[in-house]
Amino acid sequence: DRRIEAGKPAGTVVRPSGSGLNLKPHFIECTKSHLILHTGGKQTKVPNGKFPESKELLALLDRVAKQEKERVIFLLRPEGVGTYNAAARIARERQCRYGKIPVPGEGPLDLSMFD
Q1: 21-49 pLDDT tens trace
Q2: Residue 3, burial from CB neighbour count under 10 angstroms (0-12, 13-18, 19+)
């Protein structure tokens, strides 16, 4: 479930917008030190420098590359630009379509609008 639990601080709500309204998104959060794959109701962390060896990351990118109506959406935290650049390079190499959304702050993400 992608909703914030009761009693926990409110997070940043990520809203659908633009030309991606008819696409199935797959979210990858970019922080200073790692990627967080938000897939199947769970979160998988991939440390910087380990992207080319991550079976989970590569499988996601390859799966999305094969599906015309799917996209990886990189969620950029303020300190995560370098992480995004490295991950986007691998996505391009694997011919995976992607986009990016800047995410202000460091709190938890609320992706419930995409359920």
Answers
A1: 678 999 999 999 999 999 888 899 999 99
A2: exposed
Largest Cα–Cα separation, the chain: 42
Q: Which of 72, 74, 114 is nearest to 97 (CA)?
A: 72
Tell me the pLDDT tens digit for each residue of 36-90: 999 888 899 999 999 999 999 999 999 999 999 999 999 999 999 999 999 999 9
Q: How many CA atoms lie within 13 A of 88 on its CB side?
A: 15
pLDDT attached to residue 1: 39
Distance in angstroms (rounded) separating the CA atoms of residues 82 and 87: 9
**C-alpha to C-alpha distance for 72 and 61, rounded to whole angstroms:** 7
Assess contact for 28 and 101: CB atoms under 8 A.
Answer: no
The tokens of 108 are what?
Answer: 């938890």
